[in-house]
Amino acid sequence: MKKVVFTVADYGKDNDAGPKAKRDVDYYLSQSGFEVIHQQLNNKSKLDKIKTAYWVIPRLFNNVEKFDELFFQYPTYSSYVMKRLINKMRSKSKKLFFIIHDVESLRLFQNDQNYWDGERALFNATDGLIVHNHKMKRWLQENGVTVPMVELGIFDYNNPQKINQNSEYDRTICFAGNLAKSKFLDKISLQAGKLEIFGSYPSEHYLKGVSYHGQMSPDELPKKLTQNFGLVWDGYQLDTCSGKFGNYMRYNNPHKVSLYLSSGQPVIIWKEAALADFILRNNLGIAVNSLENLDDILENITENQYSEMKMNTIEIAKKLRKGDFIKSAVKKIENITE
C-alpha cells in the first residue's frame, strides 16, 4: 500500500515556529511507512503562487501512480493554490485525508460566509479529517462538514532537548511566542512570581517581575524552558483572551502547549480554551479565567500539587516526542473509512 503525507510549507524565518508542526508530522508519519512529499511556497509572491498552481503541482502529480492514501497537511495559506491542488490530489489518491493545522474560517476569516463556503467545500471533498479536538469537530459538524472526523487530542513535538526533570516549585512562568500580538504581557506585574518571555517583537518596557530573554529557534528554545509553568494566553487583556487569535483558542490546539509539555513544563491556560479540557483531564497544569491575580494563583499551588502535575507532564512529554497522537489519529481515520 502506497501512503503519502503531502506538505506545502510556507517560507519562514529560521526562528519562526510556524512550519514546525508540519515538519514534525512529516517526521513521525515517515516512521510509520509514509512517503513524504514536500513543497515550499512563497505565499507573499503572486508569481510563485501562479507557478506553484500551474506548473509545480501538475509536475508533482502527473507522472506518479495513484496513491492508496494521501494525507494532506491543511492549509497552504493560499486559497488560490488550494483550489488547484484539491483536484489534483483527489484524482491521484484512492483516499484523501486532511490533517488540519488551521481552520481559517475560525482564525483569520471569522464570520466571512463566502470564505467558509469555500473552505467547507474543500473539507467535504475529502474522505475524512483529523481535527484538533472535540470543540473544533463539533463546530465543523454544526456548520455543514459531513465527512468522518477524528480528534488529534494534541500536537506532537519532536523535541531534541532533554526533558526538564526539576520539580522544585519557585513560582516561575515562561511565555514563548509572537510578542507583537501578546500585548497582555505589558500589563502583568508580579510580586512573588517571575515571568520570563521569549520571542519576536518584544515591548520596550515590561512591569515588575517580567523579563525578556530573547528569541531562538524551536529546537533551541526548550533548553531555556526551566520555569515551573508555560503560559498559554492571547490578546490585549488580562481578564480574558481577546481578538481573533484569542477567540480561536476556543477551537484550536496552540502548538506552544506542545512545546511546553514536551519540555517537561506544566501549563497555565485560559479556562475557555478548547485545550483546557485536555490539560485538566490529564492534570498537566491549571486553567484560569484571568491573569489579573497571577501572584495569588501561583501562591495557592502547593508543592505536592505541582509535583503531581510535573510527573504527569513528564509522562505526556515522552508520548509527544514519539508522535503517539498523530500516529493514533491516522490509524483511527483509516479504520473508520475502510
Automatic annotation (TrEMBL):
Pfam families: Gtf3_C, Gtf3_N. Residues 173-332 form the Glucosyltransferase 3-like C-terminal domain. Keywords: Transferase. GO terms for molecular function: transferase activity. SUPFAM superfamilies: UDP-Glycosyltransferase/glycogen phosphorylase (SSF53756). InterPro entries: Gtf3_C, Gtf3_N. Residues 12-154 form the Glucosyltransferase 3-like N-terminal domain. This is Sugar transferase. It comes from Limosilactobacillus portuensis.
